[in-house]
Write a structure and sequence with these properties.
Chain lengths: ~325, ~325
């Protein structure tokens, strides 16, 4: 059996940490023994927690004296840097002590510290934050989700190369179809950046992915394209709007379906189907955003997720390393 | 009783027209007699249709020899211009023969012809397309939905003034809260345009609306702000992404709920609640986008909607005129 994937975990970041982190690791170990965890954080607390969960064999604790809280500015985080659980965990990837870093902590801090500590991949101008999003046939990779408020056309090309590599490392048996998010689907529509990126993607043949063309917001979830490329402003608004819409509909539905006794009875009858429906849309299953473009992979778990969501981001870390994400990105960049 | 609102209707635009248009008018007349319709299109066809529906008393037909199809470019539309049903209907507003123009036809053509024929309101740099969107407490006005791919901060200020005037003309008893769509809610985040617009809206007190601040995509439907202001690219992507998400969820739900016999039975038990749920989210009820910033109001019905959706856009036209939209916009612009 091959060596396990070594994950450097910022054990102190996010709501309910470190308990949530350790519970997530515990849950993940029950499903798969293919990971080893380097835990960065308060040694005494962590030792007690892993002892209780009987997972000492899969973990190594590295004591850190400080951590970055959710309300600290990226600038403060940058100053505190190396002595924090987050900073030390990122350093572990740079120093080849771990394959990948995972944190549920402060997003702004994670972005800035990762860029400070890890080198950029040669040929990439700007890193991008990518996330997963369900579609009718499976799962989309969507990027950038907010690492870059403004983007040039060349950034969109990098995002296409990196996003398709991520898709292939997560779903090796499927073909990647890259689409540029736009206000219309016809060639010639959109801003200048999009038009330039469109022409380059159309002309520069890359055998590792197909170029689908433009895609409009209402077709993101169709499944005809599975790597959705856009600037960080638009991507962030689109993802959050989708989240807000989903919450709104599901809450309205629950309210309608529990109004009367008959409704409640029918809910019981449909329980299994409703469970299956909710499970498919469970955001915890899509938990984990990936910072692409650096020499080492960085995964951000949602700060507010629970142990189950955190366990899903561990699974994502494993797939990224086993799927050779960084090699795949390098290969795509060669074809630029 | 006051004079009815005179609506210039492009009777030939959109899927299933002119039948859908006449059916929509027929349905609308059953609900309210407060409108009179100037119908622009093929006289023979229209005459037969209104005769059959017995609505001749509420309509006047103006024969036009040409119309603009959905696949024609805005440039072709601009050339055909005045002799088309759409162009003639817009001219009726300019010539004060109608209060407002309504079309379910080609959006690009409607935007360009409206801008060519109708003058801009003094003080407005660019017109914007506004739409309605449900929220937890009621309804949002969202703009720009795609009239301007790129916007300056001063456009965002105009959109705030126009969007809040639209909100107040549609919902006179409610207070308008303007928010700028952004990737974060804290002051100081976002691009330069947003920061400049934020500072101006914060400082320039306007008693006709409150400034809520920034809003993120996941809070659009909270109801705490009800006039959501953004550039046309972001607004278009956000609206379409919300539509796509809603469709995806409702289809997944239906699939889950009809899987087994027990499920189907329980669907029957919940029928009324599910109907109420679907009715609340029925996009036909929010049908109608409004082009703001011109001397006359222009309403665009969704091309693919049916008679019921078209009737809702007629109701919107009535509210806009009865609510004195143009006067309200002028008043807001005075405070700039």
């Amino acid at each position: 059996m091959s060596e396990p994937v070594i994950i450097a975990v910022d054990a102190m970041g996010g709501e309910g940490s470190p308990n949530k982190v350790i519970d997530g690791i515990h849950y993940s170990i029950k499903k798969s023994k293919d990971n080893f965890f380097n835990l960065y954080g308060n040694k005494n607390i962590l030792l007690e927690l892993i002892d209780k969960k009987k997972i000492k064999k899969y973990c190594n604790i590295i004591d850190t004296t400080d951590f970055i809280s959710d309300d600290e500015s990226p600038l403060t985080a940058a100053k505190k840097g190396k002595n924090t659980s987050m900073g030390s965990a990122i350093h572990a990837v740079k120093d080849k002590k771990a394959d990948i870093i995972l944190s549920a902590g402060n997003t702004g801090a994670l972005l800035i510290l990762s860029r400070m500590i890890l080198n950029m991949l040669s040929g990439v101008e700007k890193p991008a934050l990518a996330g997963l999003w369900p579609n009718k046939k499976g799962i989309n990779v969507v990027l950038d989700l907010g690492a870059n408020i403004e983007c040039k056309y060349s950034n969109l090309i990098d995002f296409s190369n990196m996003g398709s590599a991520l898709f292939k490392s997560l779903f090796p048996d499927e073909k990647a179809f890259v689409a540029l998010l736009n206000v219309a689907s016809e060639e010639g529509k959109g801003n200048e950046n999009l038009k330039k990126a469109y022409n380059l993607l159309k002309e520069n043949f890359n055998s590792n992915y197909d170029f689908f063309g433009y895609i409009e917001g209402n077709h993101i979830m169709d499944g005809s394209a599975n790597v959705i490329v856009t600037d960080g402003f638009t991507g962030n608004v689109a993802l959050k709007t989708a989240e807000g819409t989903a919450n709104f509909i599901i809450k309205s539905l629950k309210k309608s379906l529990t109004k009367t006794f008959i409704n409640k009875l029918s809910m019981i009858l449909s329980r299994n189907s409703l469970k299956e429906f909710q499970s498919k849309l469970d955001p915890r299953k899509y938990n984990g955003a990936i910072l692409l473009g650096l020499q080492g992979p960085v995964v951000k778990s949602h700060g507010a997720t629970d142990y189950y969501g955190f366990a899903h981001s561990i699974e994502m870390c494993n797939k990224i390393i086993r799927g050779k994400l960084i090699d795949k990105i390098k290969l795509n960049l060669l074809k630029k």
